[in-house]
Amino acid sequence: MQTLITLPYAPDALAPAVSAQTLSFHHGKHLAAYVNNLNKAIEGTPMEGLSLEELIVKSSAEGLTAVFNNAGQTLNHNMYFMQFSPKPKTAPEGALKEAIDAAFGSLDGFKAAFNAAGASIFGSGWVWLQADGEGKLSIGKYSGADNPVAHGLRPLLTFDVWEHAYYLDWQNRRADYLAALWQITDWSVIEAR
Ligand code: MN
Predict the structure, then answer these.
(1) N or C: which terminus of the chain carries fewer CB neighbours within 10 A?
(2) Same domain, 98 and 170
(3) Ligand 1 mean position to 177 CA, how many Å?
(4) Distance, CA 159 to ligand 1 centroid (Å)?
(5) Which residues make beta-bridge pairs with 142?
(6) Is the CB of residue 175 less than 8 Å from the CB of residue 150?
């Protein structure tokens, strides 16, 4: 049984990157539907007691499409919404800073590569910063509900490039939406992950 997360900020706190209207639909309608549909798909089965990560790995391996799509979208959105703040820490420090510099040269180099990857995803999907078992970072491009967890990688940071994430605020300007998200991305959350 999964529950809809409560957002840790006011509905209008992320504007203008993400408006209150977008949050209302994206969290209150889209994410709520994924959570409800996931619970319907696992109700009365042994999967009821599994974590989101366990549900993603199991449904991916066994081809359980409804469980995979709704568990993946629930985890993706939970991590997306919880990484934002109206007063974010604007740059990583410590081990995460060192890993980003090692993989991408600098924070600006990482952001540019991340934005380009997100802009280049065809159709609906997600761009992720992910780590392998040794802590080496990479950028992942995923379609639909797919994510790093399904591929044995650790999910750290994600931008949603489904049109429902930005069309009310940015229309077709996905690149502008991606650039604006850095203003609300809280690196203290990413460090903790
Ligand atoms: Mn979404």
Answers:
(1) N
(2) yes
(3) 13
(4) 9
(5) 126
(6) no
DSSP characters for 164-192? GGTHHHHTT-HHHHHHHHTTTB-HHHHHH
CA of 58 to the centre of ligand 1 (A): 22
Whether residues 77 and 103 share a domain: the answer is no
How many angstroms is it from 145 CA to the middle of ligand 1?
9
102 and 54 share one domain:
no
**0.90 exceeded by the pTM?**
yes
Tokens of 96: 């995460």
Give which of 5, 36, 9 is closest to 20, Cα–Cα: 9
Q: Are residues 103 and 76 in the same domain?
A: no
Kindly give the distance from the C-alpha atom of residue 25 to the centroid of ligand 1, in angstroms, as a whole number. Answer: 9
Per-residue pLDDT of the chain (193 residues; tens, 9 = 90+): 899 999 999 999 999 999 999 999 999 999 999 999 999 999 999 999 999 999 999 999 999 999 999 999 999 999 999 999 999 999 999 999 999 999 999 999 999 999 999 999 999 999 999 999 999 999 999 999 999 999 999 999 999 999 999 999 999 999 999 999 999 999 999 999 9
- Does one domain contain both 111 and 166? yes
Note whether residue 5 is domain-resident.
Answer: no
Phi then psi for 140, rounded to 5 degrees?
Answer: -115, 140
Please give the distance, rounded to the nearest whole angstrom, from the Cα atom of residue 124 to the centre of ligand 1. 9
* Ligand 1 centroid distance, CA of 131 (Å): 22
